[in-house]
Please model this.
Amino acid sequence: MKKVLIANRGEIARRVIRTLKKMNIASVAIYSDADKNAPHVLEADEAVYVGASPSSESYLKQDLILQYCKDLGVDAIHPGYGFLSENAGFARKVKEAGMKLIGPSPESMELMGDKLSAKQAVKSYNVPLVPGVDSAITDINEAIKVAEEVGYPILIKASAGGGGKGMRLVERSEDFAEQMRMAQNEARSSFGDDAVFIEKFVTKPRHIEIQVFADSLGNVVYLFERECSIQRRHQKVIEEAPSAVLTPELRKRMGEAAVNVCKACNYEGAGTVEFLVDGNLDFFFLEMNTRLQVEHPVTEEITGTDLVEWQVRVARGERLPKLQDELSINGHAIEVRVYAEDTLNGFTPDIGNLKRYRIPAGRNTRVDDAFVEGMDIPIFYDPMIAKLVIWGKTREEAIDRTIKAIDNYQISGLKTTLDFGKYVLKHPAFRSGNFDTNFIKLYFEDPRVMYDAMEEEQEALQHGINQIWDSIKARDKKEFASRESLSSWKNARS
Model:
């Protein structure tokens, strides 16, 4: 493998390029109008233009990307995350073109990409499932009967897709029919498929995922867990590894269940198996993401691995760099996603210009980003500016270091989620580890609480500064009085 095209943009493109350089593999970037001066374009060995700013006119143009690969002698494609990364049709085209997709097979993508087929596949491997049905339901009367059997509250979920689209929480039987119609309509418009299924709603769920890796030689490992329960709109904002609540025994059981998910779909490459964990620490299979995750750096930090390098090696047909008994957890890592969003206005995107952009630096501080000072945040893509990743010997140390790193960030020109990240990290529920996916609902329903907390902190800081100044003035006054006394004594002696 001598040349790889990265079919993506932003920080993940830069992340892949760094590893390719380390492995002496040439890189090819692609870019749209909005990204023509982006760092990933400048850092790649070659870069090609794929179209207008909207992703449908650039980063999703499969045939154009493949044609560039042929013209430039590309051996493999790294899809990153998002865009074409879980597109089985694209994976099949790459294979037919005689190139390697750095990811799983089209068949694995298809099987795990549909939540119903995924549930049916893993059931025979004794992977725990949320109580409910694992087949599509379209008849409203049948659906009502199933909901009554499962017991309210229940979730109606779209079979295809994710991100909370086509999902409805129903707490009363009187609301069921309307909510099912709404779920089907949203699923149809978002994914072109109105298939839905019903699951029991876990009332206090934690979202914990397991990083898995498999090679073509039959080896499968899990690289432990990531805690991803701090979310807004079903999208993660803060992740950490390991989780504060998993015991070694539970970690092993969840890891082995994740390995069985890989076996159920004949998996190869990097993947993530997502679980819901309830208040009793019972866990249930949620879904599998057949790609590298946004939050993969926290796993790298606690395991001392380069997961992109692992992806490349597996794609070349090599054995996994480490087997299960060679993997262990070292310390604790936290990732804060820095979004260009207005937290006071429902986390809505706040697109603008990075008038000032200074990132924290130092030992055990990592920033994966995609911008430099003076650049605009494009409206066409996800508004994530960067990922701040901090490692510490303990969870407490990692939290404290992350708060200090946030304080050392300097961003002006637009609003970001940095203040929200700091609010979470300082909150007693987070620091104690006693939280779940309802964190924002419970502690951030009124976003003004964050600014009230910030004002209290500012007042406490100012009070501390005033005390220091009072101490300095008192010391100086005493010293001045002492000098005056000494001067009077000298004059008297004269």
